[in-house]
Amino acid sequence: MLDPQRQGLPPLDPATVSDAASCILSTRLEGVREARQFARVTLDRWELTELADDIALVVSELVTNALRHALPAPSPDEDEGPVRLHLMRWAGRLMCAVRDPSDASPVTRAEDFGAECGRGLFLVDSFSESWGWHPLAGALHGKMVWALFRL
Hints:
This protein has helices spanning 30-45, 52-69, 120-127; strands spanning 19-26, 80-90, 93-100, 130-135, 143-150. By secondary structure, the protein is an alpha+beta fold. The protein has a five-stranded antiparallel beta sheet with strand order 1-2-3-5-4, covered by helices on one side. Strand 4 and strand 5 (143-150) form a beta hairpin. The longest helix has 18 residues, at 52-69. It is globular.
């Protein structure tokens, strides 16, 4: 079902973005709650509340993966780190993207619907139109994992 190979950004013209918002997230698990709240407030401002539940679920999964698998060992003094949530809206599409410092590809596990964890990317795949990831270039290190929604 899922192929964790690199997938570049979908063919959307960045010049046609009608709305965009981003935030830095805590590197602690409360970063997941912060991301959901940020997504809901942003979607409400953009008058897209009908998508809030699906997008909040996908944002939760993407941020959880970034916090669990993409960060170096946590420092007790570190409150905020290199995980960012980006929301971008085009005519007819909305993208959620999570940037993290790891160069490693997202990894899908074998389907086990009885498992209590490890199904995040299956949920992302089920709720979004498409999803993928790409490495960052230049001065930015890490990757961007994104999910695209049809409006």
